[in-house]
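Q: Can someone sanity-check these two? First one:
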Amino acid sequence: MSLRPQQMRSWIAGLVGAALSFGLLHCSVTPLGATDSGIAKARVASPPGADAFDRECASCHGKRGEGLTIAPAVMGAGSLAEYPRNDASSSDPAFATSAPVQGDSAHVPGQAKRDPFHTAQDVYDYVSSRMPLPKSAAGTLKPEEYWAIVNYLLVANGVAIPAGGVTEANAKSVALR
């Protein structure tokens, strides 16, 4: 059977369309970052944290906390790890960059770039002293804004938090794992 060029293009286009339709119907893609249900729970548990995260954090870490450019993931699988994977790239290799992390020129290769996150207090201590960037803006939010963001992050990550949320009084007792 011999097909003319126009028929061949139509046949190939049909095959490609069928393959794409099959792929879209039969493949599921898990979005990076927090799950929809995690974000919904976090927005209910800490509306001020959701607002502060959207305003202060999402431009670098993504709306879902998935990590963008050189900012690491802060919500979803692998986020808030005891030690970061590689905080010179996001959890999406497409965003990988070899650019140096701002304010990190004194970092010794092979050494952890931060203390481990074991408790909510560890997360608070880090974000309240080093975020938001640039370095000149670090620590400029009010303590209650930092606590609200920590609550939002923890709930979105599925961490059980005490009734009334994580506070300075109970943060050391709230384990991340």
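And here is the second, same format, sequence then tokens:
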Amino acid sequence: MSNKIFIDTNILVYAYDKTNEIKHDKAKSILFLKISEKDDFFISAQILNEFYYVLARKQVSHSSIVNYVNEIIENTKVLPILLENTMKAIDIKERYSFAWFDSVILATSLQNGCHLIYSEDFQHNQVVEGTLKIINPFADE
């Protein structure tokens, strides 16, 4: 049985941006785990938009970003943002006090059956709604 793992924008950015070598290596190792462990990686259309925006602000060329986006699309399942995700995000924001776009990410993850999310934007090892565990791969354990 495979794990359904959601990947947040920051993990993808670190995987393609070599500015922080330690985080780059860690992010790349996470993405390569999929190949050996047969995990299913998920992102949302929101993540692709954020990824493009962050790399463009880092002065990465449009053509390079497009190549990266295509590579990501080939290796992950891209989830749409639906009305149901927005309604669930409203509940998550109210219950947990997360930022709005973080709530949308969590709602999308939960409503698509993901059990893990890799992100540095949340509390490491926090569990949301009793089923979604947040892993900050850069946290000191």
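A (reply): Looked at the second one. Residues 21-37 form the longest helix (17 residues). The chain has a mean pLDDT of 92.
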